[in-house]
């Protein structure tokens, strides 16, 4: 029998351990976002990336994160454009539910007062802190969606970096210039570290976990990065894209003329490039832009490394869920095209990885088809919060629900039975009031797209009887999507099956 005082001490020790055990279950979340970053990362080497990852990418921090994450090798965004893609991911509702296809509308005003990922964590007792580009700023999000955050939002000043005459598509910033005017993403990373120094210790002492969302502006145009990152990509190793032409038999509506690159920057604007299919940029410009993009990717990677270092320093790695995603893909001269804004594989395919303590330390990769709407229910399950229910067909008055699937089963079994079709869409031409909608579906072997008449607000649905173009790419023999087989007789049966599945939509195809 212990003397009473020792007994009491032991009792309190056990009680403390039990409480600590309960508290440990509430994991923090570090929510990292990059802009226009295609899955061109060391971790993505392999047969599934449509254009081989080349040159060897220097992304040690994201590769390290991938090595202790569920790496989604085939994750697809819902729309290859910042505002609609982010709105969809952050609400876990598809574009036909958010009604956001362009930049000007705010989902809370047009579709419903939907709960976002950071808002859900905030409502569950988390300190929700946001900075940089998480939502697409401005009208798209009512200025970074105030209901999502517990504290005032941090934006980096002068986020384009240049002004007037210096308005270039890319700038390698020297050390002096960088010291005089810190790059916006550097300021965002430094702010993240500052916030971690405050919320990290609180999360360990009290039951107040943090949800920290950090959105980087790079590698979005203009490719502005510290000069030192060029050294990872010597000029001699940069290659042109393997397929500088538009797909054979591509319908015109599939094409985007990449005006954002052609007209916004003086160095490219003066070249007077038409942006029409098969009229791409001169070879030397193509190589220079590719090199600058890769350098901007490595710059972003290094900032992510700085933030993770702070987590490690505070011994928080085992208590923190980390997710990373880039809002959609990007073309670097493939198809003779640039930027995003299409339904091609290169625009729809995007990087995503999720590190969950206790589930993913060994590093798990899955080839299962996954979607950006899957992230919200995954983070909720990983954190042990109340699971989200599936949205009803009309969810405009349902605050919190999901149109995706938690990816936790893939952490336990990366080849688990899973959905076999994923959906991306793109509106043409006026994004705010589209006349046409391109619905695109990826299956294991095919990408199939129908561009159909869009019945505008307030109807907001497709008229499948009026078709403007059809695309069928066979990834078993044409992973670069260089041949549209939609009108090829030998594909008639496949086309008809894919068409039925596409029109049935995600809800009827979800066989998990
Ligand atoms: C939307 O939801 C938030 C959070 O629940 C609430 O604070 C806000 O008042 C709601 N807005 C409208 C317009 O209902
Ligand atoms: C650094 O860049 C600035 C701005 O472009 C330029 O004015 C300056 O001459 C450069 N300094 C060096 C040492 O190259
Ligand atoms: C682009 O070039 C390819 C290959 O030469 C050709 O098959 C295709 O028809 C061209 N497309 C257009 C729209 O000119
Ligand atoms: C730019 O290109 C168009 C054809 O695409 C041509 O008509 C026009 O004259 C060109 N402008 C200049 C300034 O070269
Ligand atoms: C690209 O090549 C053209 C033609 O050889 C040349 O006039 C131009 O200065 C080059 N541009 C760059 C940025 O190297
Ligand atoms: C969806 O439901 C809301 C009420 O919750 C209703 O006002 C709206 O008209 C419905 N939309 C459609 C397309 O049925």
Automatic annotation (TrEMBL):
UniProt keyword terms in alphabetical order: Calcium, Hydrolase, Metal-binding, Signal
Superkingdom field: Eukaryota
Gene Ontology molecular function, alphabetical: iduronate-2-sulfatase activity; metal ion binding
UniProt GO cellular component terms: cytoplasm
Signal peptide range in chain numbering: none
Record-annotated membrane-spanning stretches: none
Coiled-coil blocks: none
InterPro entries xref list: Alkaline_phosphatase_core_sf, IDS, Sulfatase_N
Keyword Cell inner membrane assigned: no
Cofactor requirements of the protein: Ca(2+)
Family: Belongs to the sulfatase family.
Protein name: Uncharacterized protein
Organism of this sequence: Owenia fusiformis (Polychaete worm)
């Amino acid at each position: 029998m212990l003397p009473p005082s020792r007994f009491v001490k032991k009792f309190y020790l056990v009680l403390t351990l039990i409480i600590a055990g309960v508290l440990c279950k509430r994991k923090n979340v570090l929510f990292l976002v990059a802009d226009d970053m295609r899955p061109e990362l060391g971790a993505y080497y392999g047969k599934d990336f449509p254009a081989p990852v080349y040159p060897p990418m220097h992304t040690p921090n994201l590769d390290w994160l991938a090595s202790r994450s569920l790496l989604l090798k085939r994750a697809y965004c819902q729309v290859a454009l910042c505002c609609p893609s982010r709105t969809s991911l952050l609400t876990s509702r598809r574009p036909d539910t958010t009604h956001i296809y362009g930049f000007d509308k705010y989902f809370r005003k047009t579709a419903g007062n939907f709960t976002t990922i950071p808002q859900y964590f905030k409502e569950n007792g988390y300190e929700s802190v946001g900075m940089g580009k998480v939502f697409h700023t401005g009208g798209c999000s009512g200025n970074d969606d105030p209901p999502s955050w517990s504290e005032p939002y941090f934006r980096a000043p002068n986020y384009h970096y240049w002004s007037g005459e210096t308005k270039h598509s890319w700038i390698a910033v020297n050390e002096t210039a960088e010291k005089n005017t810190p790059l916006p993403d550097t300021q965002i990373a430094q702010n993240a570290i500052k916030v971690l120094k405050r919320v990290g210790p609180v999360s360990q002492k009290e039951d107040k976990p943090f949800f920290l969302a950090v959105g980087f502006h790079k590698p979005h145009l203009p490719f502005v990065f510290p000069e030192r990152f060029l050294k990872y990509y010597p000029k001699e190793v940069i290659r042109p894209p393997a397929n500088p032409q538009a797909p054979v038999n591509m319908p015109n509506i599939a094409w985007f003329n990449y005006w954002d690159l052609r007209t916004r920057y003086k160095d490219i604007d003066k070249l007077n490039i038409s942006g029409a299919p098969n009229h791409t940029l001169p070879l030397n410009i193509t190589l220079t832009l590719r090199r600058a993009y890769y350098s901007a990717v490595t710059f972003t990677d290094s900032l992510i490394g700085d933030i993770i270092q702070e987590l490690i320093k505070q011994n928080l790695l085992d208590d923190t869920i980390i997710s990373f995603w880039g809002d959609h893909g990007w073309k670097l001269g493939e198809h003779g095209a640039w930027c995003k804004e299409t339904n091609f594989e290169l625009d729809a395919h995007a990087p995503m990885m999720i590190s969950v303590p206790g589930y993913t330390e060994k590093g798990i990769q899955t080839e299962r088809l996954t979607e950006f709407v899957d992230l919200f229910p995954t983070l909720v399950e990983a954190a042990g919060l109340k699971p989200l229910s599936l949205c009803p067909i009309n969810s405009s008055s349902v605050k919190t629900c999901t149109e995706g699937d938690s990816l936790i089963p893939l952490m336990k079994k990366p080849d688990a039975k899973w959905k076999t079709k994923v959906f991306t869409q793109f509106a043409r031409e006026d994004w705010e009031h589209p006349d046409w909608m391109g619905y695109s579906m990826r299956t294991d072997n095919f990408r199939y797209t129908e561009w159909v008449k869009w019945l505008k607000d307030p109807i907001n649905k497709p008229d499948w009887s009026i078709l403007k173009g059809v695309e069928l790419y066979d990834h078993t023999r044409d992973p670069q999507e260089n041949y549209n087989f939609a009108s090829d007789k030998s594909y008639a049966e496949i086309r008809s099956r894919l068409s039925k599945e596409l029109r049935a939509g995600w809800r009827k195809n979800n066989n998990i």
